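Protocol step 4 of 6: structure prediction from sequence.
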Amino acid sequence: MMLRSWDKLPEYMRNDKVRPYYEVLRKHVLSLVLKRIFDIVMSLLLLILLSPIFFIVSIWIKLDSKGPIFFRQERVTTYGKHFRIFKFRTMVNDAEKKGSLVTVGNDARITRVGEKIRHVRLDEIPQLINVLTGDMTFVGTRPEVVKYVNAYTDEMYATLLLPAGITSIASIRYKDEDEILKNASDPDKAYIQDVLPDKMRYNLDSIKHFSIWNELKTMLDTVKAVI
């Protein structure tokens, strides 16, 4: 994982708010390379080890409701690149056309199987494919949809210096995000105004204190949170 030179960043990222975070990461070039090597080795190993679970969950989803096994949605990652995320489908087909882009508690669009696998984060496992291809990493800011990235402040763009992640400190703190938003009259607006800024506070702080050891700790904390 190589950090681009400052003048190669997208113009909207080359601002005074992003610069301090860029300088922090510039001091950790070797750690960023090790991070990418770890992502490749670990994602490949886990895809092999978890292949039986992939098979079982895939059949379970197909038997439970109509629609594809995977949920594919356009998200944003490093330097504003758009990619299509892999997740096990936990909602009815075409759920995005039937409600908010965020999921709220007691969301009628969630399937029976979806409710169970979301509870233990099994729906996130296919993102190992995105990690292997380099669009994502194990620890980093969760990938947002374009609509929410368009609402970023100048400082928030600093999170796009690194690939989007499967988990993060913000993800752990907001693991029950759907419950927080369930009483909002406009979940999308509530997410942008209330939830996103606080999550970004954690994400930006993680960049300030970036290290391989901190990322390993976040992975362990994620396992504890799921259990």
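Step 5 (inspection) to follow. The chain is about 50% helix and 10% strand.
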